[in-house]
Write a structure and sequence with these properties.
The chain is built from 13 helices and no strands. It is mostly helical. It is globular and about 55 Å long.
Length: about 240
């Protein structure tokens, strides 16, 4: 009964996930641009930040059909987004707010299903969506770290950051922005600020060691990430530039 009470608040997100997926849960592959899944998920033939992720998919494909894995990934994106946002909002709950429970469900549902998520789904960018779904979980660990800097709070924060880097390199931008903003809040408290900085630098070093398998090749100009950066020209900058329409 205790277990049921713990998971009961999250059932709306499970129902919403099933509603969003709908016919996509039927047998067969979801064909959506960048989400290219085949009956056999091979080992990645290049080393970049996603190598561990695709290697894990290859191992799973040894016991599970590829189309089943694909649908589970999409469900995980939705569930992690909704539940993560819900838990984060509950942590931020203001004192005496009468309608906060309703507001937290509405806010979490909007984080879970919104134009950004729809656009990434249609483009098949499940890696970006996985990074997005882990963001509230990282934010919770970051909040605890800046409030109580130390090894106990640093470890889970680094784990979430590493997880985000493995599924999507783009999500490291979100990690950096949140970390800088959270740290800046304590600039006036010099002792606390330097404690955050001390453990933060250690965290960056640990992150670099764990991600050395893709960071080192990128730094020396080798591998897929370095090749992508080298081929990024003025044409691409113009194509992705923010312009007034």
């Amino acid at each position: 009964m205790e277990y049921v009470r713990k998971i009961l608040p999250y059932t709306p997100y499970a129902l919403l996930s099933l509603l969003v997926m709908g016919p996509l849960l039927l047998p067969g592959f979801v064909l959506s641009m960048d989400m290219v899944f085949t009956p056999v998920l091979r080992m990645p033939d290049h080393v970049d930040n996603t190598w561990l992720f695709y290697a894990a998919l290859h191992v799973l494909n040894g016991v599970l059909p590829a189309d089943f894995i694909q649908k589970v990934l999409l469900l995980i994106v939705l569930l992690l987004s909704g539940i993560g946002a819900h838990r984060f909002l509950r942590v931020l709950r203001p004192n005496g707010e009468k309608y906060f429970a309703v507001a937290s469900y509405i806010g979490s549902a909007l984080y879970m299903v919104n134009p950004f998520v729809y656009d990434r789904f249609m483009a098949g960018q499940y890696g970006v969506l996985l990074g997005y779904s882990l963001l509230p979980w990282f934010a919770m660990s970051l909040r605890k770290f800046v409030r109580e800097p130390g090894w106990k709070s640093l470890t889970p924060m680094i784990c979430w950051a590493v997880g985000m880097s493995i599924v999507s390199i783009h999500s490291l931008g979100w990690v950096a922005v949140l970390a800088l903003c959270a740290t800046a809040m304590y600039l006036r408290n010099r002792q606390h600020f330097w404690s955050i900085m001390k453990f933060g630098v250690l965290g960056v070093i640990i992150f670099a060691i764990v991600g050395a398998y893709w960071l080192l090749p990128a730094l020396v100009g080798q591998g897929r990430i370095a090749n992508s950066l080298n081929t990024f020209s003025d044409a691409e900058r113009q194509a992705f530039a923010t312009v007034d329409t």
